[in-house]
Amino acid sequence: MSTLVYVILTSLVASTLSSGTNGETLEFLIGSRGRGLKNGCSSENHRNYRATRCSKLGDAGAPPAALPVKTELLVFADQRLASVYPIIQKFKSLITSDPLGITKTWVGSDICNYKGFFCDSPPDNNSATAVASIDFNGFQLAAPTLDGFLDQLPDVALFHANSNNFAGTISSNIARLPYLYELDISNNLFSGSFPTAVLGMNGLTFLDIRFNFFAGAVPPQIFTQNLEVLFINNNNFLTTLPDNLGSTHILYLTLANNKFIGPIPTGIFKAFSSLSEVLLSNNQLTGCLPYEVGLLKEAIVFDASNNKLTGPLPVALSCLEKVELLNFTGNQLFGMVPEVVCELEKLRNFSLSANYFTTLGPMCRDLFYKGVLDITNNCIPGLPFQRSVVECLDFIAHPKSCPRMWSYTFIPCNSPFSSGSMNPGMAPSS
C-alpha cells in the first residue's frame, strides 16, 4: 500500500477563536485510490484520478454554530501534479485580464482538465502523470510576467502562448527545463534583450518570439543551433547578419520587420540553403546582393523588400528553379532586369517597384504585360507610372559601385534555359 501524503493549508475563518468555532482547514491528499480517508468522506471520479471532498458535520442535536465547520479535501493523481498546483494558483493570482473566463476552470485538483493544460507521462517515469503541455494560444490573458510560472514547470515539453498580453522578460531559468522543445510566446508584450537562455537548450527545436518588443543584438549562435523553426520577425532587433552564418538545420526562418543592418553576407547559402522562405523584408540592410542568393535552391519565396540594397540584380537568381515569389520592392537597385530571371518557369510574382532600373528586355516586358512583374516607380522609358526624369537623373549622378562586379553575370548552376540569353560560367579564382 502506497504512503499517503497530506499537505494541509489552514485558513482562519472571520470569527475569533473565543467564539467557540473551529478554523477552516483545506487538506490536499495525494493518492490513487483515496485509501486512508476519514469515515464519512465521499468521492467522485475525474478521468484518471479521483477527487475527494470531505466535510465534517456538527452534532445533529447541537444548536447550529454561527459559522459552520468546513473541511475540504483535494485529491491529486500524482505528486507531480500536487507540486505544480500552488505554482498555477500563484500565476492565476497575477492574471489582470481574462475576458474569456479561462481561469475559472483552474479550480480544484483536476489540473489535467484545466483549460490550456495537458497532461502526459514524463520521459523519466511512464507510470507518472505530469503537466506536459501548455496551450494558451488566443486566450487573451494578461499578466505582468511569466517568471515563477513557465520556469517552474519541470515537466513541460510544449509551451504555446500566442496572442495574449503577457509582458516582462524571459527568465534565464527556462534553461533548466529538461524537456522543453517548443516555445511560442509570439504576439505578446515581451521586451528586453534576446532571450539568450534558449542558447543552452539543446532539445529546443521550435522558437517563435515574433511580434513582441525584444531589442538589441541577436546572438549568432542561434542560427547554428539545432532548431527547425526560428521566427524572430516583428521585433526591434538592431544587429548585423553574421558574416559566417555556418550550417544550420533551420527549415523555417523569418527575420522581417526588424532593424537588421549591414550587407547580406555571402555565406547566406550556408544557413539558408534548406529554406523554402527567406524573409528579410522591412529591415535596414545595405550593400549589394551577393550572387550566392542563387544557391538557395529550395527557396519558393525570397523577399528582401524595403531595405537599402543597391547594385544590379545578379543573374544567379535564375538558379532559383522553385521560386514563385521574388520581392525587391523599395530598394536602390538599378541597371537592367536580367532576362534569365524573367524566364523562371514557376515565377508568379516578381516585384521590383520603387527602384531605379533603366532597361527591360522582351521576356521581362512579357511578364509585365501579364501582370507578373511589377516595375512601377522605376526609370524605364516608355512604361507608365515611372519616376520623374529629374529624380532618375539625380540618382544616376551619384553612381554606386559593388564589389565583385564579375559575379553579376555569373550563373552558379547549369542553365535550364534554351534561349541562350546568358551562358553559365565558372567563378574566377580571385
Automatic annotation (TrEMBL):
Keywords: Leucine-rich repeat, Repeat, Secreted, Signal
Pfam families xrefs: LRR_1
Annotated SUPFAM superfamilies: L domain-like (SSF52058)
Keyword Repeat: yes
Cellular component GO terms held in the UniProt record: extracellular region
Signal peptide as annotated in the record: 1-23
Highest taxon above the source species: Eukaryota
Subcellular location per the Swiss-Prot or TrEMBL entry: Secreted
Name by which UniProt lists this protein: Leucine-rich repeat-containing N-terminal plant-type domain-containing protein
